């Protein structure tokens, strides 16, 4: 699921972007601390840094606030998963979806993918913060991240008003419409798959309970009748134990491949949506500026014209970057989804075959049992 | 000596007439006992006798003084009396053979003497029947016993002269106090006897005391006054345990003796003795009593009085061990050798007795003995039955196959009912055709069960129960809701009915039932009525209540037969386990259904995503994936069905069947109860007879005698019934267990096959999808 585009990157990083890994997650009180390992481009050494979620937020903030980069708002920022803690509230867990499952492995995977995406990004990887984040053993300062325009909350406030704004560019209009549909669909599919996985987990637990309960049916004693029945119970318990294993395997496959893929896709669609929204905001701003410039009195005309031009340039930059990003991302996400599906399919096949083998063995054992 | 004879009576005093062979065997063993037992303890006892003279003299002095108080005084110095008895006992051991000779020589009392040596049972029987004859015999016995004593070398010339007078006195007293039996006169008697005997021959006093106790039904009064003094134990350990053990066991039906032993034994003889006395209350346990009394008595001679009590407790359990053929040194090896045989035969009876004694809250030490004995018996029995089982096993394979299909709703609204097609395929000659098809409604199935359980239940058969009524499920069907839950309900019920019928016809005895044949063959059945009681939860409740009652009853009875006790516990445990398993499988089924539903909606949303997708390859792949998921939904659905029908329903069947198993235990309990009740009734009648005997009312006596005969027959009948039911239950439970394992294996095989199949299907689906996924450019 790693998306790598090294060819596009003129790397300013001293590390190999696609090899960034989160080797382990530590529980530091309520906080989760992640060990990030990346390989040096020069030589064979590795960087090992510990980062917590605040550090990730710091990184993301720094990426957002690259005022000097033209059209930065047109970038589809790799989506950072929502904050997770050791005792995350049920609501947040629900919001995390797949990422809340297991012992944070999916969450780590998502963070890993985030870092890889950032490091692989032609614009973002140039930011110094990325290098600092990946290589500096010290925590990159705890300054409070200011809420900015990219904050989702503020977006929600006037989102409804601007979202329906008619676009001047058909490409973006289509992109926006398409994004809207895909966001909803992807979200639904992700939720449904999550439900499937959770049910599979329940089944695995139920199989485990049944298997354990069967072992309790075993009766001691030399009575051949009892021994025969005990044997049946023990064997059946084994059957359910392997059923539990295979079901657990299936659910893990779901999570590690399709689940994470859909989750990422879903978050990316949100990121695109945000990007498009930023652009739409800029468009609205530009249209305002244009109107103001037209209506402006001669005294202010020049200043207004200046503003209009600035807005126009900015919007054009954004649109240019956005177009590039959308095209680039389209290829990336198809590949990503394909990978997810292929891996999913392969893993499920493997699990199913193992399971079938085990059932065959159990079946033979039972066929071999002869009771008078 | 009466004491000696009683110490070693044959194990089956009552069965003497009936089971001569056993008696012989028993007597042999007891003679051995005697020798073995007395061989060792005689030495210490002898040493004690040296010291005895002084106490004897004391006691004699005491006895000379006021007769009313004599007993008490005597009791104060029990050791002296015990000491007296000890030498006698030892002496007696050796001449036991001489006894036989002696008794043979005494022509007139030949029978009686023999009996007196072995056991006074016959005497008492005679006593019971003929009051006058009894007197004669008493005299005879009196004569014999002193003679024996003489032979023993204890008293030499003493016996006849000394003992006879007391006997006469006794008889006089008996005549005088025929009806009112007050303790005082007897004590007087005893006092007199003692005075007379102690001076001359100590054994004589004992004999007379014994005689008093035995021949007067009013022995209890003797015991009662002695209660006051704890020392009385000693006195009666010797005489009492031996004497009373025998007499009352024989006269168990007689009220006075029971009263004697019920009340005084606790005080006088302490619990161990009490146990013995209680055992004796019922005929069958006599063998036990005797053997138990043997060691007790022996020990009492060998050991000091205080120890006796403790020893007695020990000996009682030791009987149990010996009965289970383990050599127990405490019983001096006597019982270990012989008792096993005795017990092997006595076991069945024992097992039945013990509950009775238990019910009376007596005899704390007895149950283990009975249980062990029963275990020994049950092992034998079980072995025999296993053989039978094997034979039956072969016949068990009936060529009959039943399927229940095509559930059909007949009628409308709440009057609607479901009818099923019952198809039978068989090659059995008992059926007219090879294939039989009839239509039966649900209540017909219940009706069949009612008929079968009514007929075969009381015999201890495990009648397979049908599925219970389900008002909610059926109402849904009646209302005509064609949803999945009602379809599921109908399918479950259909399967349950099919398995129920198959179980019925697989049962060798039930298959022969005309009602079964009629059910399978006849075109029209008379409408089954009153199946309401079996509706749904009510049915289960009823079963549970029945089982509760059974378990309560079994708490009182369970020691009777270790096998049944164990099995019942197993059944209860299995019931709990199966209920748990059932709940777990049901939740598994719920989850599977949930998974199926979730997979369906995942497939649907995937399809939507596919249609929203611009990239054609991706869109196509997603649509394919949606199809795969749709198929998987079906697999999950099938899996849920497999879970339901291979496990949930099977386990539900077995929960019902376990209820039926407990029902069969219940029937056994009922048979036992009936038998016990009959025994109690018989005892009452015998007591009535005893009263009438003393009241001298021959007209009523005749009636009571007839009743006794009648009840004796009933007791025998019920006992046999109980034995039969017990045997059947045992066989049925074994069969049930075997069937259970086979059944589970069959269903697990089916289940595994379905699992494997669905996995293979899954593999196919994924394999088909893989190239599609890879094809996305």
Question: Which features would summarize this protein structure in a list?
Answer:
heterodimer; A: 372 residues; Substrate Binding Domain Of Dnak, Chain:A, Domain 2; 2 domains; three-stranded antiparallel beta sheet; B: mainly alpha; elongated; disordered N terminus
Secondary structure class of chain A reads mainly alpha
- Number of DSSP helical runs of chain A: 8
Strand content of chain A: 5-15%
Instruction: Report the C-alpha radius of gyration of chain B, rounded.
Output: 37 Å
Multimeric state: heterodimer
Average per-residue pLDDT of chain B, rounded, comes to 60
CATH topology of the largest domain in chain A: Substrate Binding Domain Of Dnak, Chain:A, Domain 2
Average pLDDT over all residues of chain A: 82
Write up this protein:
The complex is a heterodimer of chains A (372) and B (777). By secondary structure, chain A is mainly alpha-helical. Chain A has helices spanning 53-64, 90-96, 105-120, 128-135, 152-163, 170-216, 224-295, 298-368; strands at residues 21-28, 31-39, 46-52. Chain A has two domains: 1-137, Phox-like domain (PX Domain, 2-Layer Sandwich), CATH 3.30.1520; 161-372, Arfaptin homology (AH) domain/BAR domain (Substrate Binding Domain Of Dnak, Chain:A, Domain 2, Up-down Bundle), CATH 1.20.1270. Chain A contains eight helices and three strands, in the order βββαααααααα. A three-stranded antiparallel β-sheet of chain A has the order 1-2-3. In chain A, strand 1 (21-28) and strand 2 form a beta hairpin. Chain A is elongated. Helices cover 78% and strands 4% of the residues of chain B. In chain B, helix 10 packs antiparallel against helix 13 (202-215) and helix 21 crosses helix 30 (698-774). In chain B, strand 1 and strand 2 form a beta hairpin. Chain B is built from 30 helices and three strands. At the A-B interface, helix 6, helix 7 and helix 8 of A face helix 28, helix 29 and helix 30 of B.
